[in-house]
Amino acid sequence: MKTNAVNIRVFGVVQGVGFRPFIYRIAKKLGYSGWVKNIGFGVEIHLESNKTGDFSDFVETFEKEKPPLALIEEFEIEEVPYLKLTDFTIKKTESGEKFVFISPDISVCDNCRKELHTSSDRRYHYPFINCTDCGPRYTIVRALPYDRPQTTMSAFKMCPDCRQEYSDPLDRRYHAQPIACPVCGPQVSLRSVKGKTISGGIPEAVSLLKQGKILGVKGLGGFHLVCNALDRTAVQRLRKIKERKIKPLALMASNFSIIEKYATINPIEKEYLLSARKPIVLLKKKKDIPGIAPHLNEIGFMLPYTPLHELLLENIDIIVATSSNKKDSPIMKDEQEGIEALCDFILTHDRPIYMRADDSVLKIVRDKPLFLRRARGYVPYPQKVHASLRAPCQILALGGELKDTISVYKNGYVITSQFLGDLDEYQNYIYFEETIAHLTRLFDIEPDIVVSDLHPDFHTTRYAQRSGIPHLQVQHHFAHTLAPLLEHGYSGSNKVIGVSLDGFGYGEDKTAWGGEFLLADYSGFFRLAHFKNVPLPGGDLAAKQPWRMAVAYLLDCFGAAFPPIPAMEQLDPKKIKGIVEMIRHGLNSPPSSSCGRLFDAVSFLVGLSPLKVEFEAEAPMRLEAAALEKIDEYYRFELDEKSTGPILISFEPMIRSIVEDIDKGHPAGFISAKFHNTLAQAILKIALYSRKKFQADTVSLSGGVFLNRRLLESTLRLLEKENFKVLRSVFYSPNDESVSIGQIAFALAQKGTK
To answer: Are strands 263-264 and 251-253 parallel, antiparallel or unpaired?
Structure first.
């Protein structure tokens, strides 16, 4: 294409990231006239030259030097009439279609960090320093377009110096909406829990931490509860306040070298720790810090991601930085929500948080992220949907009930919310409603369809039923299976093998599913195989008291006269007898194929799980942590292939062998390794069967059980060795956070078939 003028349209995360001044600078440098402006769906660029050319120098420079926060989804260039313009300008934002993406909240960049620590700079030690390459975004924006009046910075009038930077296209703070300085911007204050202002600010806060005090610290998406991580007394006080006896606590270290003292770090883990997203990364322990992550072999670290955190960590090596929430409630974003009841002092500021968001948590498996929680730094990045699945509609998907997210679909993209928590807690449900209102307003969504789980009693199901919008329901594990397909743009014509392993999902037969193998495509599935059902004595109590599942599995294998096992000796025989009778008479003992409850049973049998767990997956996490390396053995299991109905996978032979290994004195780590290997072998066995019978060669791995690094790595290795194509969640969590994404996929398939 040889011409004098072109129009370029760019769609993606291109607003609020310094994109227009970037275009301005390179156009000026290359000698082009024209303009750049924000439009409803992205950015439009008009380029002209008095010499005919193909504008390749602009395109190449664009690709090499685009802003670090920009995410380009579409790039269109077309020849247009030559207007004989003489200059290049930045035009004002146009109103119109509101579907435009914004950047997530981003940690303080290197340029701002340098200024922060330069005593001659006017923003020296200013805890709200930012530019177009860093700072708050999602948590401060009220509406789009992303302009200062639409953010929580609207109350702060820029001083002349900030206004000059904000207005200069050659300045890196050009149209940085949170721009501020000590003269005109937000201010930090240190207060007692009774509201008295304490002099000294951040340095005094550090002094208080060194004295063993607990602080509530207002960050980007809410308050952290903070204490000196190396002060064991302070950590125990914090645990008591949080009602968190042994659940792992997140740590923030002053620098990377400090983390290296306590954890083993590979290059990919280092990359994520140092990235602009600054997630919490789970790392293998090198040196234990008492009271932080008991009974586990991993520890979660992050680096300071706001200038306030950066200043707080200047004179203290490691702090606990855990979400400031009462048990099972969402993170607090305002002092009025009760932060004073959880700490000794409050380090706060007057920049309001509009949308609360927790820290993201991930681990690295096979050089790729595995999210335990996706929130700050990653939301609201868009997920592009493959062209074959797109439909002309708008969708709201509500997820499940536990570890919930919502997702919205419009114009070929899915936006998934931050982690919202468990909706059976009232405050989390309010958070859920807040987030629906925020995302639908932010992206101008008017849903044609609302999608929920199949479970009739979930809060999300009831919300959908009350909405008055056409309502689809999707079986839990089917939604799980579809999530990796949508994420990876799967468009194959063959059905996939969905391996969905978790604690609970409402099945089409109204029983509790959880160890599922589905043959599926976007439009539907059938249940190919599942773990053999075992009773859940006490229903939901079985997930909180793993010994109940141990009794259920022993009863299934041996009858009431099961052999003596050391772990069972801590139980009153009357309790065991009561559970046996409960199961035999079918009293509150619903059948379940749950993989999570199998983990609970084995963890208890080998002596790793407590009688009552404090948090979800505690027993499986202890079992995983104990597993020995370089053990290839596995236990026997049985497949019961019926003439009709799904294959039943029975682990009765495995439970019998585990009891024998316990009797022989084999350590828990040896048994754990064999147990993990057995599950991986069972997955391989069903996959090979499916390939032979149905020509299926793509496997989707989903469900919270695949947060288990040991199981995921073993399964990937076995399947890939047999040349299966394996899809698993990479930029989303495989747990119930991904259910809303799978629900979107199903709704699109249904819309496309009509």
So the answer is: unpaired
The pLDDT assigned to 97 comes to 60
Dist CA 104 CA 95 (whole Å): 22
In the chain, ranges of CATH 3.30.420.360 domains: 380-488+736-752
**Residue 123, phi then psi, degrees to nearest 5:** -105, 20
- Domain 501-521+527-728, classified CATH 3.40.50.720, yes or no: no
pTM recorded for the entire structure: 0.95
pLDDT tens for residues 138-152? 999 998 878 899 999
Architecture in CATH of 3-90: 2-Layer Sandwich (3.30)
Strand order in the sheet with 449-453: 382-384, 413-416, 407-410, 395-397, 449-453, 471-474
Residue among 604, 603, 593 nearest 535 (CA): 593
How far apart CA 60 and CA 72 sit, in angstroms, is 14
Report the pLDDT value the prediction gives residue 628, as an integer from 0 to 100. 97
**Both structure tokens of 120:** 């001659």
Per-residue CA distances from 392 to 93, 731, 736 (Å): 26, 25, 27
* Residue 39: predicted pLDDT: 82
The CATH class of the 188-363 domain is: alpha beta
Assess contact for 534 and 552: CB atoms under 8 A.
Answer: yes
pLDDT at 526: 96
Q: What is the pLDDT of residue 18?
A: 85
Residue numbers of the chain with a pLDDT score lower than 50 = none
CATH value of 380-488+736-752 in 3.40.50.150, 3.30.420.360, 2.40.50.140, 3.30.420.300: 3.30.420.360
- Using CA atoms, how far apart are residues 325 and 327, in angstroms rounded to an integer? 6
